[in-house]
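Homework help thread (please don't just give me the answer)

Our assignment gives two proteins as sequence + structure token strings and asks us to describe the second one. The first is just a warm-up. Here they are:
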Amino acid sequence: MERLANHVAIVTGGAQGIGGATARRLAEEGARVLVVDIDGDEAQRNVERIRTAGGTAEALQADVGTLGGVEAMVQHAVERFGKLTIVVNNAYGSFERGDAESVTEETWDRAMDVGVKSMFRVAKLAVPHLRAAGGGAMVNISSVHGLLVSPGWFVYEVVKPAVIGLSRQLAVEYGPDGIRVNAICPGHIVTERIAQRWQAHPDGLRFFEQQYPLRRTGTPVEVANAVVFLCSDEASFITGQALVVDGGLSIQLQEDLTVRLGRYAREHPDTLFSPTD
């Protein structure tokens, strides 16, 4: 069954990775989808995949880190499809490593514009259309880093918790209008780009997988499936939540995990520890 028939969805950062898989899954469930990405060519390629599979989608090149980009995508979706009922805020920009002393203000401002302020702008411009449609769903992609933090990623560790706070506030504010707002917190998801990094270091990936109770990392479609659920009537009484999709990564007692990973590292001394090294 098409759980999202008669729905119109916007997916930001919808060309590849989690956003790309989400756009495809929403279309598979019957939604008409506007795929928005700063890379217009990649967005169009994902649209062609959707159309080949029998879905309905259009591509729009836009920078959601700007007010004009958000205005353009909301207007385009409503003009082309007649309404708006689903918004998936997935775009997050690029995050440089660094602490509060080393991060530049330009890096901070760009990260906030794309990762947080874009969601504020989307809410401001999309909520009237969601309300006019009789309600709808908004899903904001956060991260397990929205719940747990690590050193050396100052901007990322500020942006992702902010996404959860923003989602909760919007859920309380617009629940009376039938608008549900939730966040998703993925663990390590092997997208197309991350897969390229790991191909050169398969031993490193195997070490990384040892951190997870399921002994594997996630795939974009597994996050996309969670998005579809939260946008469907099956989640009609779920709002203001941060749904963790991390293969159990964040539930472990850290002492036990450290012992187990140390044992694995001793047995596999050539293992690469991090995909970013």
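The one we have to describe:
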Amino acid sequence: MSIKRAATFKNTEDNINLIVDSLCPGILIESIEGIYAFTGEVKTSPYSQTHGDRYKSSRVLKRNIVVIGKIFDDFWDNRQLLYRIFRPGSVGEFCYTEPDRSNRYINYYVESCDIDQDPFRGQYQISLICPDPFFYAEKPEHIDLASWLSDFTFEHDFLAEGEELGHRETSMIQEVDNLNGVDGIGMKITLTASGDVTNPYVYLYETGERITIGTDDNPYTLTSAKRVEIETTTGKKNVLQFANNVQTRINEYLDPDSSFFQLKAGKNTIGYNAAAGSNFLNVHIEYKMRYLGV
């Protein structure tokens, strides 16, 4: 490995790290399998009176990462280190870095850790299972559809006649390009307000999906004292309200036609509105890009 290419394995339960690169003392990685390719499953059903099959669905299967290498120094100590980091069934995080690329992460469970008992050979093989098969970016992306931006600079001379210290930046619709080709990227959508907003909603133009907080029969008012966070990530879908340092689930306000939409592959046009007070609404979106490989 070059000095710029590195693999980091972190046992998140015991908070133990192993960083393997060209400077790693005593442990060498010879190959890492399962980080560039992915395996999919396509389900079909046969037509009864014609050729071929009917497409039903497809998905990406769990990922199996296999690490093969050699302990070439301090065999006994480094063997125990591998056993500690790769405890059977333990949870970990794998980070891979290549030259001129940002880090990409994936979570795993340890399936096996096989180390040759002969210190002169020192071979080892580790198998990691990733139920979520996607790699994720190190840092999240941020989008403001509407927000207040500061115009204050330091040092500052205050004017006697008064002045604006901020301005409202508004874009009720914005395009997000997801060029890596992976569907289903979840988002955290944060709604705040500078005045009363009734039944706010965000939507995905391409599909017509939208998330509406409040209905005619069960209206919801977002005030300046509240914050609403909408999570659309699979397994975490929720609507939370934060007010007076208290967190409350408010899924009961969801319009029945709401859909926790996610970013699709390609262009995504996201917008917002409200039954009343949309000019007071601030919308911030946060998401992490995910990839089919490193």
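TA reply:
I won't write it for you, but here's a hint about the kind of observation we're looking for: The helical segments are 75-85.
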